[in-house]
Amino acid sequence: MQKIFPPRYKRGGVGDGEKILVSRSLKEYADILQPFQFVRTHQSHLVNIHFIKSYLKEDGGKLLLKDLTKIPISRQKRNLVKETLNCFAK
After folding, report:
1. pLDDT tens digit string along 21-37?
2. Quick one: pLDDT at residue 7?
3. Where are the alpha helices (DSSP H) in 1-90?
4. Nearest partner of 24 among 2, 39, 50, 46, judged by Cα
5. Where are the alpha helices (DSSP H) in 12-90?
6. Edge-first strand listing for the sheet containing 70-72
7. Which pTM does this prediction carry?
8. C-alpha angle 45-32-43 in degrees, rounded to nearest 5
9. pLDDT averaged over every residue in the chain
10. pLDDT at residue 55 in the model
11. What distance in Å separates the CA atoms of residue 56 and residue 65, rounded to the nearest whole number?
């Protein structure tokens, strides 16, 4: 699973294109999945760090996933994302 999208009984998606119905908020999923190396990059994106190819500096910061999807990083989450990537790059 690469990423999970919108919260509260809405359609979401995972990286392989499968559609899912989610019943919790993205914050709840972020809290549950954080120990499993997921990082919340934006209000609508939760990413498994093992699917990240690189960090892009364009447009204030984006993640390039292995499937070449670009995921935005909010200004508020930028430092957290960088710290998380640095921890697992070692």
Report:
1. 777 888 888 999 989 99
2. 43
3. 26-33, 78-89
4. 46
5. 26-33, 78-89
6. 52-56, 62-65, 70-72
7. 0.77
8. 20
9. 82
10. 93
11. 10
